[in-house]
Write a structure and sequence with these properties.
The chain has about 350 residues and is an alpha+beta fold. It is about 30% helix and about 20% strand. It contains 12 helices and 12 strands. Keywords: Signal.
């Protein structure tokens, strides 16, 4: 089928996307979710239809459901003749001298001076063109308790003056990107017809197009799964650890020193180890296999994975293709052959995204 109607989206009765009435109506409609959709490059979505709530239609954090889905945002076919590019990087075996690596993915930590930086770090690999804070498209609706739950923290530590370190190990399964469409690229007949109806100077004409065909398309994505853990510190301790690792690097630390920095000895609070897909089997494995005994403390820590070939090899098999790890959304501007219509579409999208960022912050 050429396109699917936006069943979760209706045009606001007054004004456009940024009105408060629209926000209230949107919250009510979020219960009527679509069935799982295949995540594919070139597919168009309406970012405005679930702005701030995208984490309920894209599997990016653990959710309380037993259904197996990765992506269920309604999509529309816009472009013709999509060309899928080969992955940017060579195969895992090529990168490691012909031998398969123990773990096919990445292990990293990010220092975050505040909660905003923590959310930015978690959604580092998610881009929404024309949106200055792309993480807000997923998190703007999160309450304090929801934020604490998704980050694996006690709610006390998502308010006040706290600093954080996000530790994450991600297993990449599928990586897909497309050749960026150029302005005037061939589009589906229905799309071309409605694109011609966009009238520069008339915001409602852009509204009508977005309502039918969306605002952005999927330029690239990576799916797989990950484990992550957030460590909370007082500002003083945080700065000391940050400076130590900045000047010396992790490799220069002894195993005891590294373990102490990421233990109750230094951390004010240690978050739970969570699986991005919410896979309880993987989380239970982590809670047991990654348990650390440091002096009189006993706790699970992702840091135990550092340099442990056996654990990494086991985890490499446990983390399946169950979550979205990276996503690049770009506007549908290339669908407009006429330069004036294309510029007007971009201008309206840009203005409305800024309004949504302000209203949902």
């Amino acid at each position: 089928m050429l396109w699917r109607p936006w069943r979760a989206w209706r045009r606001p009765p007054a004004g456009w996307l940024a009105c408060s009435a629209c926000l209230a109506l949107l919250a009510l409609r979020l219960t009527a979710l679509e069935a799982a959709e295949p995540l594919r490059v070139g597919a168009a979505i309406n970012v405005f239809s679930r702005y701030g709530y995208l984490s309920i239609s894209m599997r990016v954090v653990p959710r309380n459901d037993s259904e197996s889905w990765v992506f269920r945002e309604p999509t529309v076919d816009v472009f013709k003749n999509i060309t899928v590019l080969p992955t940017r990087s060579p195969t895992a075996a090529t990168r490691h001298g012909g031998k398969m690596p123990v773990f096919e993915g990445d292990f990293h930590m990010e220092f975050c001076d505040n909660l905003r930086q923590l959310l930015q770090a978690y959604f580092r690999d998610f881009q929404v063109e024309r949106l200055e804070r792309p993480w807000s498209a997923f998190t703007a609706s999160w309450s304090r308790n929801a934020m604490a739950k998704h980050l694996g923290l006690n709610a006390t530590y998502v308010a006040g003056s706290h600093c954080y370190v996000l530790v994450r190990v991600a297993r990449h399964r599928d990586s897909v990107r497309m050749v960026p469409p150029q302005p005037g690229v061939p589009v589906e007949e229905a799309v071309a017809k409605d694109a011609n109806l966009v009238n520069p100077g008339d915001p409602s004409s852009v509204v009508d197009f977005v309502k039918s065909f969306g605002s952005h398309y999927v330029a690239s994505y990576v799916t797989g799964n990950s484990l992550y853990q957030v460590f909370v510190y007082t500002p003083h301790i945080y700065q000391r650890i940050k400076e130590r690792l900045k000047t010396q690097g992790v490799a220069a630390l002894s195993a005891v020193e590294l373990a102490s920095y990421f233990s109750p000895w230094h951390a004010e609070h240690m978050g739970r180890i969570l699986c991005a897909s919410g896979n309880q089997t993987v989380e239970e494995w982590a809670a047991n296999a990654l348990r650390v005994h440091f002096y009189f403390f006993t706790y699970p820590s992702l840091i135990k994975l550092h340099g442990d070939v056996g654990l990494l090899k086991t985890l490499n098999g446990l983390l399946g293709n169950e979550a979205v790890l990276q996503l690049d959304l770009r506007t549908l501007a290339p669908a407009f052959a006429d330069p004036a219509k294309r510029r007007w579409f971009q201008e309206v999208i840009d203005n409305q995204l800024k309004l949504w960022e302000v209203n949902m912050s």
